[in-house]
Amino acid sequence: MATYNSIGTTYAGTRRPDPRIADRIHQALGGSATVINVGAGTGSYEPSQTVLAVEPSSVMISQRPPGSAPALEASAEAIPLADGSAEAVMALLTVHHWSDLEAGIGELLRIARRRIVVLTFDQDVSRGFWLLDEYLPEAAAVEDTRAVPVERLAALLGGARIENVPVPHDCTDGFLAAFWRRPEAYLDPEVRAGISLLAQAGDEILQPGLARLSDDLDSGRWHRRHADLLDREALDAGYRLLVADL
What we know:
- By secondary structure, this protein is of the alpha/beta class.
- It has one domain: 3-Layer(aba) Sandwich (Rossmann fold), CATH 3.40.50.
- The chain has helices spanning 4-7, 11-14, 19-28, 58-62, 101-111, 123-126, 130-135, 137-146, 150-156, 189-193, 196-201, 203-219, 221-225; strands at residues 35-38, 50-55, 71-73, 86-92, 112-121, 161-164, 167-168, 234-235, 239-245.
- Helix 5 (101-111) links the parallel strand 4 (86-92) and strand 5.
């Protein structure tokens, strides 16, 4: 499977933090004085109190903006930090990429003193997203193999409250469901390059479904089929925020 050293080259441009989602994440951190971001990528959603980012991809680290917290090139499964290194640890849209979930969660529990915040997705909901359900079922099948059941994740965290995170219709962070009301965006190769599932699947697998989407947009079928979406402000596409107090 491709790594972020090969698929992450455009993330700084296509994965810009959405302020509404940022507010939810920062509220979940609960005013923690020190935060470590694990699986940090380019640094999206890091609050000002972030003291360290942990990220295995040098390509992602190179795209962190000036003034960001220092970054440590390391994997979530083996973080070379002392126990209780920060009040809070956050891990955003990353756990499904980890090679050893239990080891990674164990590391979060070890380095956090007070709280852990994880942004993930509920595949039972996500697989019903129109892009995957109607056009890219092959990509949905790939997601099934790597998705982490939310209840399992909450249990590994020792119990966590689970909050829905609706996706605004004009979301600025180009993750998979960000363009649910802007379907033409998925025809843009640069947009797809910033979505790990689509970038890893590759255009050869995606092209038949994307061709059907293009045809449906040209003919108006997509808009007729999804007329109920056109006036909605936000969509529950399965994104979930887990907050665990230690």
